[in-house]
């Protein structure tokens, strides 16, 4: 584990576990969490002999709580700074939700041009674009996102209990049994970060258009999505992304929620391994 300082002076925390000679698997976390959200996957791939790397996005987890730069261009540049510092090559990048947007822009803008990327995985990811626009009529209305900002600003601590207790993991569905430890861990990760970074991050994950990034990506890309994703609906994300990617594979999980990597790690992890080693 260590830190690097980016060109604009932001300190980014990262984890780097496993043999330095092994193929790297790089994980990009979702909003408003940290690299800890990937613990289960990192331990799994570590046990399979891979090198596993994950960083905390600026303003999240243990990275610096800076005022500015909470947008996808900075997120991708920060990720690139970590990859260049560690000189990672032949890496598989795996991004969940907002991290899927970050990974998409990183691969298109930095990873591919630098020859560092072997494959990409997008899980419950925000691309191509979340917000409703004339070009994306099926997207989320801006009013919904404004509501998220309002709720966060009013009582972030309560919001970060309610969100994982409900739609994030599908615990609001009939018959679902909330897992207290999972909810508490989500809250712990969220509250470790910066309120401003999380507030600004809503615009970053919802209004960024990744269409051209997706079109530019030519490495094999696995798109995984829960059919019952209440946060990033599959029809407006994964099903559109696969039409833009050059080498996509789509894997849909019936009735799985947005937080499928945590709730169904026993299914997701072997599927990831199969793609990585194919």
UniProtKB/TrEMBL annotation:
Pfam family, one: Abhydrolase_1
SUPFAM superfamilies hit by this protein: alpha/beta-Hydrolases
MF terms (GO), sorted A to Z: hydrolase activity
Keyword terms, alphabetized: Hydrolase
Record has Cell membrane as a keyword: no
Listed InterPro entries: AB_hydrolase, AB_hydrolase_1, AB_hydrolase_fold, Epox_hydrolase-like
Residue span, AB hydrolase-1 domain: 24-258
Annotated family: Belongs to the AB hydrolase superfamily. Bacterial non-heme haloperoxidase / perhydrolase family.
Protein's UniProt name: Alpha/beta hydrolase
Organism this protein belongs to: Pseudolabrys taiwanensis
Phylogenetic lineage: Bacteria, Pseudomonadati, Pseudomonadota, Alphaproteobacteria, Hyphomicrobiales
């Amino acid at each position: 584990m260590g830190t690097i300082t980016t060109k604009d002076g932001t300190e980014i925390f990262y984890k780097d576990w496993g043999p330095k000679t092994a193929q790297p698997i790089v994980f990009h976390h979702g909003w408003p969490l940290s690299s800890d959200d990937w613990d289960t996957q990192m331990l799994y791939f570590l046990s399979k002999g891979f090198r596993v790397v994950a960083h905390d996005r600026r303003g999240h987890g243990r990275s610096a709580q800076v005022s500015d730069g909470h947008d996808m261009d900075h997120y991708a540049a920060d990720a690139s700074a970590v990859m260049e510092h560690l000189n990672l090559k032949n890496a598989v990048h795996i991004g969940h939700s907002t991290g899927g947007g970050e990974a998409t822009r990183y691969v298109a803008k930095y990873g591919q041009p630098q020859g560092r990327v072997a494959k990409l995985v997008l899980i419950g990811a925000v691309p191509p674009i979340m917000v409703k626009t004339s070009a994306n009529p099926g997207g989320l209305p801006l009013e919904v996102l404004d509501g998220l900002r309002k709720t966060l600003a009013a009582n972030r601590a309560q919001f970060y209990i309610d969100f994982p207790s409900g739609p994030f993991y599908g615990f609001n569905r009939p018959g679902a049994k909330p897992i207290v430890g999972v909810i508490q861990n989500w809250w712990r990760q969220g509250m470790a970060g910066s309120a401003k970074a999380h507030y600004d991050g809503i615009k970053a994950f919802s209004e960024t258009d990744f269409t051209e990034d997706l079109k530019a990506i030519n490495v094999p890309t696995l798109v995984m999505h829960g059919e019952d994703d209440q946060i990033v609906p599959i029809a407006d994300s994964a099903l559109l992304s696969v039409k833009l990617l050059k080498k996509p594979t789509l894997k849909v999980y019936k009735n799985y929620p947005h937080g499928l990597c945590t709730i169904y790690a026993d299914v997701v992890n072997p599927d990831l391994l199969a793609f990585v080693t194919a």
